[in-house]
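INTERNAL AUDIT FORM
Audit reference: QA-55
Scope: verify that the stored structure record matches its stored sequence.
Auditor: D.O.
Record contents follow.
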Amino acid sequence: MNAPFARADGCATPSAALPVLKERGQREVFCGLTGIIWLHRKIQDAFFLVVGSRTCAHLLQSAAGVMIFAEPRFATAIIDERDLAGLADANTELDRVVTRLLERRSDIKLLFLVGSCPSEVIKLDLGRAAARLSQQFSPGVRVLNWSGSGIETTFTQGEDACLAALVPELPATDAPGLLVVGAMADVAEDQFRRLFDALGVGPVRFLPPRRSGDLPAVGPNTRLLMAQPFLADTLRALEARGATRLPAPFPFGAEGTTEWLRAAAVAWSVDPAHFAAVVAPAQERARHALSLHRTVLAGKRVFFFPDSQLEVPLARFLARELGMVPVEVGTPYLHRVLLDRELPWLPSGTQLSEGQDVERQLDRCRAARPDLVVCGLGLANPLEVEGLTTKWSIELVFSPVHGYEQAGDLAGLFTRPLDRRQRLAA
């Protein structure tokens, strides 16, 4: 049976009782195109063609850290002054670029046309372009589109848009199965696959798949385990196909991972004693790894700026397993459905904020003087100059952090900035 959800002091905290400060103002966000950096590593035969400006191209190159001899599976079709002035037919130019790309790269089986702020400004219909090109190059290449524009989104929603675009392509099935939704490091995915096999849960498939030809089937008997808290559009699309979400916390830390796995085990009627025996060795390793970091982090105060939508699960992990005190947990969007097993686990009185008015939040952060600030790259250096210790939130998305074996690595991402500050002060 499921373990009760409770506060660290042992009492249940209804999520509705947590105060939520809703802010609408100037935001500090990273571009949704950055999702390509981990998605192009995950789907190994897909190519991501951004239809955007030279700024988009520079962002991807700098964010990816691509070596000079590497041939990455992403590129940018540059929208220049002729396109913006209407002197060139953007669709003709796009067809030309795609044709040259596919002639050069015969390994591409799935091509994503990724929208950007510039392509949206000139009202370029990439959905229609993708349908046209997909028909032209089928059956060898499937062409889909999604928007990575940062105008109204935060950067992790790039993955949400990409996976939502894949959902209509998934085969239909009436067979029962478990679908794990959200990109994870291959090592974490393999670890979970072994645990599910040992529990007798399955068949288990993952979205996104490693190969575009291995799209998982979905239907009314598909159960969903969400691996990332920022996939609201993907969840809605899968539920429209008949799938059912298994409510669970996210698999960060020993506790979150155990309850995430337990949600699947309960759905598959796994004997509780068998469940405990299967997870016990990995659970104990995770707890031991976390104990080494708890001595550093216990009692330290942490402040989250809204950035990745990982803020609520990470605050839960830091508070319950490492003894940290969340001063404020800001998140771009507070999806209460996706976070229904996370919010009750936050410490009583935790200040939640949704959206952002960056100047006001900076004032609250400066007044609180927390031991650690989790924020975007644009705020980190100025806050460091002011004497605050910061952690880049984007690193928490790029790094392998899911599951038992990565629990210690996840904790280490928070201890290292404090260790760095201490060494610099010595």
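Auditor finding: record pair retrieved intact. Confidence is low (pLDDT under 50) at residues 1-12.
Action required: none
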